[in-house]
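Quick illustration for those who missed Monday's session on complexes.
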Amino acid sequence: MLKLNGEIDALKGVGPALKIKLNNRGVNTIEDILFLLPNRYEDRTILYDIQNAPINEHVLITGKIIESKILFYGRRSLFVKIQDDSATLNLRFFYFSRAQLQQFKKNTHIICFGLLKSNGKKSEMFHPEYRFIESSNAFKLDDKLTPIYPSIDGIQTGRLRNLVGQAIEIMRKSEPNEYLPENILKEIKMPSLREALINLHQPPANLKHADISHAIKHYKERLSFEELLANYISLRRLRLLAANTAADSLQLGKDKVNQFVRTLKFELTASQKQVCNEIVADLNKSQPMMRMLQGDVGSGKTVVAAIACLKTIMNKKQAAIMAPTELLTEQHMESFSAWFVKLDIKIVKLTGGQKKSTRDNNLRQIKQGEANLVIGTHALFQEGVIFKDLALIVIDEQHRFGVNQRVALREKGSQFKKQPHQLIMTATPIPRTLAMAAYADLDSSIIDELPVGRKAVETLVIPNDKRPSVIERVKNACTKGQQAYWVCPLIDESESIKADAATDRYEYLKKIIKPLKIGLVHGRQKQAEKEKTMRLFKEAKIDLLVATTVIEVGVNIPNASLMIIENAERMGLTQLHQLRGRVGRGNQQSHCILLYKKPLGSLAYDRLSILRETNDGFIIAQKDLELRGPGELLGTKQTGLPQYRIADLLRDAHLLPKVQKIAEIMMQDFPNKTNKIIMRWANDNQEYGKV
Ligand code: ADP
Ligand code: MG
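Prediction with adenosine-5'-diphosphate bound:
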């Protein structure tokens, strides 16, 4: 009989390739897969007439194909018209294969499921799921809501549903590893792990779709609680550990640092100076620094990091900087090389996209201590990277890394007798209460002013249908020597669909914006291609850069002064603020145009208005939180708060006092279980490193 702690490939349908994909996502045992939760549920228990189906909901519809053809106007698409007794419905596919085209034959019956749209006259569905059937009633309706799993590494939701289904069957006959003792569950009034998992994956039959989120809330909280607990305990332990660990006291190099500051083309702001003093004081100590540096976009955190690195290097030790994207590592390479040009400092880059020979060479230099400064993505802290004498780790834009990655990183440090100092930088301010949970282990420094001479970015909120005038404006600006970004986000879509959308927009703008030079970057490109485009943009050989949100963090091109963001209504304020922060970095007046799709609800309008009214990231973050009522769909992903697998700091904030209390009890009374909880949740989430 299969057991929950058996290897995942004991399940039917898991071959070697799938096993690797699942292992990469931290799914090693059968039990592990139960922790991949559905992100929503679909209702295929009801069949609707086309005429009476509710608009803007996911609905199941069946009908007969009466027409199918390719449309060439606008964006090329496959158009299929179906009919039932009540009305007709148009299906549209923008991504389709030749084989698909042949299948949609006239008079064939089809059953499809998707989001129903209507413009008053005609009903439409884009990219529905579909199946061909013998006749209009040759199918069986589901009796339960269907869980929809986020697709991971190309594993389809149906496949995951099947695997989870098998795992649930095994669990029905056995017990999962419950690490929260019974009396604690009772105290916090939470269900057992078993009950929670069953209800989340297989909600009871006859539960109505409208009631689902309410019905499963409690079960989800059970898992969130455990995850928050695991993270909180990890962080507390790290703090305790740090207090008892030695670090190199970096006392030399004061003059060199002062000299360096004098060579800069600008004067440090008072805030930057203050923060540098705090950091230098920490580096002097023989316990590891654990400091979080908060500062709004454009406040000049990078140069502060450079000063910390220089100080470290002047003590004959190595420093490392980890950034969330390859784009950003490349940019840091450039800035640091320029800053340190007169100094005898060897800088080495380490990213996932490098050739093996380059990588091997870099690894050797890091190991032998030839490299003084290493700049990289999370690839920096993977196995096989061995430092000779690492004394400082800087993490840039920390919110893009999961909490678990931070923990993993610290553990990397523990291979040394001494711990490296750590400086963690973020542009995202976070309210005190949440900071307690998310950064229980860190001291904090704040840069609270922007460099002098910066002009606040002027922000305009404009509906989509005025796009032609916006294009006109881009043309004018670029003709006058300015540079612009055009961001095409598409939330909740895969990286490849985002890339396609950006490519389409690029092709379109290229046609009408001649003779200006236009470039494209997205997450699907090869690293070299991304770098080349960014370099051309930096050298002003490209006028307009079309991009996905890959440019969201850190990108610094001071001559760019115009930012266009499409579908702004679908993005979080903090994310928009980050994107907007790509302009306004030089001395000319910059503008940001937020394009939205009509109609705009009043809440969405209020949110966008905040951006128009202020450029202060702290205020924006605060308002963003205030305006997020329950049921807000955007989640923490776009607030810049740390990412968890299941928990959501905002949604679950009310659990935090309990988490803190139970953490103390668990650490005291159940050290064994505590270790296991941490292990369960401490899987690397590497999703963000790739873009
Ligand atoms: P962020 O805090 O968003 O990471 P950066 O470190 O990228 O900001 O800094 C943005 C720009 O401001 C860079 O071009 C940087 O060289 C410049 N800068 C940093 N500090 C100052 C300063 N004190 N005066 C003028 N420009 C500065
Ligand atoms: Mg930065």
